Amino acid sequence: MKLENRLDVITKRCGSVMAENAKLREVIDHMLKERSSFNVMWQRMINKLNCEKRHIMDLVEQATSAFDQREELCTKLQTLKERGQSDKTNHIHEMKELQRKLDHDAKLQEFLAIKGQQRLNTEQQEREADKRRKKLEEMERQFMEYDKIFQRIILLSGEKETDKIISKFIKEEEENYALFNYVNELSHEIEQLNETVQQLQDSIDEQKEIREMKKNSQDDNIELLKEEALKQKQSADEASDYKNECEATLLEILKAVERLYK
Questions:
Q1: Helix intervals (H) in the chain
Q2: 199 burial type by CB count under 10 A (0-12 exposed, 13-18 middle, 19+ buried)
Q3: Which residues form the ODAD1 central coiled coil region domain (predicted)?
Q4: pLDDT band at residue 122 under the 50/70/90 scheme
């Protein structure tokens, strides 16, 4: 009777261990499926994020290039305008001065010719007059070049009045400044996004390590349970064999007793 009770206890314990083992296996399988689904979703998020980052970087690069080009053009136009205005003023002043001297020389020569008191060397006067004429022609040529440049600025800007051209360039500079600030904001957002991604990646790596440790621990527990179940099964098998032997012996004893009574 005791042997049968022991066998029943061992059988129940073995069944309980096997049931617990099955539950643990279901939990592990569920966790593995969840991890697989999470990895797929995470990879999709990473791919989408990388695509958005590349798009933002392209926009930033294009905006920066356009800003640099417009800034350089505005600087050159402003410098050219200031230099042209200064040269124009100087040339007009010099042209007036040369014209005044030419008029004065012409009047002087006319006066001296009339009076017969021309004291200066005619050849020297002609050389001086020729030099002044050449200088005046050179100034006129430069003035025409600056005027062409200014006309091209008018053509590019679409405005004829100088004040409107200046206002337009000031407006474009303000737009460039706003664009520059926008580029800086985008760069800052990208940096923050990279930091967030890195933090998220670190958190995921940490969770993976924790899950791996749990999985290893659960695997170890399962192995221990398997070993314990195997030992219990061996004990149950031994008990069953012993029971069979006892039953066989008891049966022989009963048969012997039965023969005695016969």
A1: 2-115, 122-157, 162-261
A2: exposed
A3: 3-262
A4: low
Q: How far apart are CA 92 and CA 139, in angstroms?
A: 9
Q: Cα separation of 211 and 214, whole Å?
A: 5
Q: Which of 226, 233, 227, 224 is nearest to 7 (CA)?
A: 233
Q: Is 118 left (phi over 0), alpha (psi -120 to 50) or beta?
A: beta
Rounded-to-integer distance, Cα 124 and Cα 164, Å? 50
Alpha helices in 116-161 (DSSP H): 122-157
* Those residues with Cβ within 8 angstroms of residue 14's Cβ, 6 or more apart along the chain or in another chain: 229, 232, 233, 236
Phi, psi of 145 (to 5 degrees): -65, -45
CATH number of the domain within which 238 lies: 1.10.287
Contact 204, 7 (CB under 8 A): no
Enclosing H/E stretch for 117: none
C-alpha 61, offset from chain centre:
10
Whole-angstrom CA distances from 113 to 39, 119, 130, 131 are 108, 10, 19, 22
- Span of 61-75, 130-144, 245-259 with lowest mean pLDDT: 245-259
Burial class (CB in 10 A: 0-12, 13-18, 19+), 105: middle
Domain that holds residue 203: 2-261
Q: Tokens for 67?
A: 């800003």
Q: How many domains does the chain have?
A: 1
Range 70-74 contact pairs with CB under 8 angstroms and sequence separation of 24 or more: 70/172, 70/176, 71/176, 74/169, 74/172, 74/173, 74/176
